[in-house]
Amino acid sequence: ILGDKLPQVVKWDTQSRRGKNLTKRWKEDPRHQDLDFWNRLFMFIRDNCHFLMGDNPTAWTASLEWIVKPENFTKIIEKNYVKRGVQ
Global pTM? Predict the structure, then answer.
C-alpha cells in the first residue's frame, strides 16, 4: 500500500527499538491485533496524510519506524496530519 511512496523496510529486528514499538502498538489495543486495522491505517495515511507522504517543503516521508513510535502513532490516529476540512 505504501511501498512505492515511503521508505521500504529492509531489515526488521524484533529486539530493536523499532521492532519493540511495533509490538507495543500491536499489543496495546485488541483492535490493533488485526492486519485489516493496519491495512486501513496505511490506506488512511496514503489517502489523507499528505504531509507524511512527502507533500511538505523538504519532501520528507514517514517511515514505518516513525509511524509506530508512540507519540507519532497517536498523532496519526487523532488525525493531526489530515488537512483541516478533510475527513
Answer: 0.82
Nearest to 8 by CA among 65, 86, 60: 65
Distance CA 84, CA 28 (A): 28
Burial of 42 (0-12, 13-18, 19+ CB in 10 A): middle
Angle between helices 35-48 and 70-77 (to 10 degrees): 70
Q: What percent of the chain has pLDDT over 70?
A: 83
Q: DSSP H helical segments within 1-87, as ranges?
A: 17-27, 35-48, 64-67, 70-77
Neighbours of 8 (CB within 10 A): 9
Distances in whole angstroms, Cα of residue 59 to Cα of each of 6, 50, 53, 55: 11, 10, 8, 6
